[in-house]
Amino acid sequence: MRDPRRLTARYSIESSIEPERAAALLAGEQSSGTFVQVPGESDELRSRHGAEVTAVRVLGTVAPSLPSRTAPEKVTAAEIELEFPMENVGSDLATTLTAVAGNLFELGDLFACRLQALDLPDAFVDAHPGAAYGVRGTRELIGLDDGVVVGTIVKPNVGLKEAEYRQVVRDLARASIDLIKDDELMTDPEYLPLATRVRVAMEEITAAEQVTGKRTMYAFNITGDIAGLRERHDLVVDAGGTCVMLTIPVMGLPALAYLRSFASVPIHGHRGGLAASMRHPGLGVSYAAWQKLARLAGADHLHVSGLGSKFYERDAEVSENVRHLLTPLGRGERVLPTLSSGQNVFTPHPTWKALHTTDLLMLAGGGIAAHPGGAAAGIESLRESWAAAVAGESLEAAARRNEPLARAVEFFGAGAR
Length: 417
Prior knowledge:
By secondary structure, this protein is α/β, with parallel strands linked by helices.
């Protein structure tokens, strides 16, 4: 009996053969088939376990996007849809990714292959806990009922010694910033080990809380060997930390799911390395497909790039990334979209206009650290810019009544990043 629970994967492809044949080839490669029929590959087995081509839409001829063994001048572009029986993969994330985004990229007859969308059956979604904290839990931990969560990255991102690091955290925590995070490059170096950072940061955050009444959240980067993941998590939690960070593409979805199984604080999901499988329009996995698996695996925050950022994604793509994360999925909390990469006082207005939500974490590294008035002025300028955007007040009008914002407009308006 064929499993009625189906995973639906939609791809953009280019092929040197008819798109219908290419789709069938892909379906066979990723389920029960191979390049030639083998003993044991019965009709019953193919019927039960074979991926099924459910749609092919021919788009026309194009120049090949990717190299292969042959070099045709033109190939056929198409959009195809495949259904995979859930029985093939169960609810395992690694096996699922292997099925929908594995060996298919190797096929010589394909000159483009990109997983654009992934629809998962309820049984698959319900098998995963999803985000434990997300938007709501993060707000509760930092004591922020509404408004954008304002955060930053320790800058310089690598190379600080203990005393220098302490001063950076002290200045930020005493300015009542909502969240500080390690850079993805900062894990456990000899000159400033994770244990030292945790001790120093929590000393400064605790001391600042006595003055300000606010406890800043710090996302400590615990990316590293999987065997030590729990030990590093416990190091943070035992010191009073309220967030850990994992670079998901580097560690993999199973590592994220493993961390989620015991984490007692939010997981800040960094996407470093994701663009290697996402940036080329003819290859890899779209953010729309990837984010579903990362959310099911347990990320509470996920990076989405940023509007007007220094990275490659267009603003419309970033907006769509945000909307995906704020759309409920299964039993997990809504994931907090994390804006980064060149954020400063000029980005709140277009961000608000595009999204009309403040359920966002805005990470401004240079946008805070480079403010000519220092970190506290940088934080204030961002909050003032966001307040103006939400209130429908122009940035220029808001700057006339707030000096830190005025100085930030002058500085970042001159092209600084």
